């Protein structure tokens, strides 16, 4: 499965949860695929704008809350909101868009989405966004169901797990023990105008190739 197909499949259940929370009980596959594609494009745009603001503000890709807020404003998620130039001319910061977004996060619509997704109980109060007490999401529960040995041993180094730590690869049976030593040796030989030789087998192969077929 390609990475595009994998991420599309992972995005499909949240879109279904949102549709159910909005009151839709059935939909055609083509409609669902269209909504998934729109959501993927929106998330990609939001991430790229946040990365661009991080690069412009502090010259790295470590996002801050300000970078995310500016990206949300760029994609139209914060509304109504004055532009940065209008705020500068008026001498005050427009917080209406941020306040409306926070209100939606704490409101009934967002709570219904989380309830449909199984993150909170039906009769539970809306948890505090600063101290979440929600349940596990569907992906975490699915990984635990199909993994009896732990997430680290099966999903580490993949899109569904944590990053794998770089470990040195040791080479046995040769004059060097690591890839780094071998790379340094090849670089040194190339600077001297030589190529690394593998010893007697290569010379035998050369002589065999230069001999007539009747002699082999």
Layout of helices and strands:
Blueprint (H helix, E strand, L loop, with lengths): L2 H19 L7 H30 L6 H10 L9 H7 L5 H10 L2 H9 L21 H8 L5 H5 L23 H13 L8 H11 L6
Helix pairs in contact: 1-2, 1-6, 2-3
| Average residue pLDDT | 78
Strand content: under 5%
Beta-strand segment tally: 0
Roughly how many Å apart are the termini?
47 Å
Rg from alpha-carbon coordinates = 28 Å
**Mind summarizing the main beta sheet?**
none
Number of H- or I-type helical stretches: 10
What best-fitting shape do the alpha-carbon axes yield?
A: extended
How helix-rich are the residues, as a percent range?
55-70%
Uncertain segments are: 196-216
Broad structural category: mainly alpha
Instruction: Write down the secondary-structure element order.
Output: HHHHHHHHHH
Task: Characterize the structure shown.
- The chain has 216 residues and is mainly α.
- It contains ten helices and no strands.
- It has helices spanning 3-21, 29-58, 65-74, 84-90, 96-105, 108-116, 138-145, 151-155, 179-191, 200-210.
- Helix 1 (3-21) packs across helix 2 and helix 1 (3-21) packs across helix 6.
- It is extended, with a radius of gyration of 28 Å.
- The two termini are 47 Å apart.
């Amino acid at each position: 499965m390609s990475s595009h197909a994998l991420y599309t499949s992972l995005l499909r259940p949240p879109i279904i949860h949102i549709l159910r929370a909005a009151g839709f009980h059935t939909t055609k596959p083509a409609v669902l695929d269209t909504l998934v594609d729109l959501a993927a494009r929106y998330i990609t745009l939001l991430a790229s704008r946040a990365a661009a603001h991080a690069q412009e503000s502090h010259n790295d890709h470590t996002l801050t809350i300000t970078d995310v807020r500016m990206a949300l404003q760029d994609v139209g998620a914060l509304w109504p909101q004055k532009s940065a130039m209008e705020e500068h001319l008026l001498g005050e910061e427009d917080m209406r868009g941020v306040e409306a977004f926070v209100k939606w996060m704490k409101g009934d619509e967002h709570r219904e989405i989380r309830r449909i997704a199984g993150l909170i109980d039906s009769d539970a109060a809306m948890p505090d966004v600063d101290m979440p007490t929600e349940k596990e999401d569907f992906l975490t529960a699915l990984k635990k169901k199909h993994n009896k040995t732990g997430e680290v041993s099966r999903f580490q180094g993949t899109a569904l797990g944590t990053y794998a730590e770089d470990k040195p690869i040791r080479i046995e049976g040769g004059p060097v023990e690591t890839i780094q030593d071998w790379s340094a040796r090849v670089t040194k030989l190339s600077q001297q105008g030589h190529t690394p030789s593998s010893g007697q087998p290569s010379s035998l192969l050369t002589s065999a190739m230069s001999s007539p077929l009747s002699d082999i």
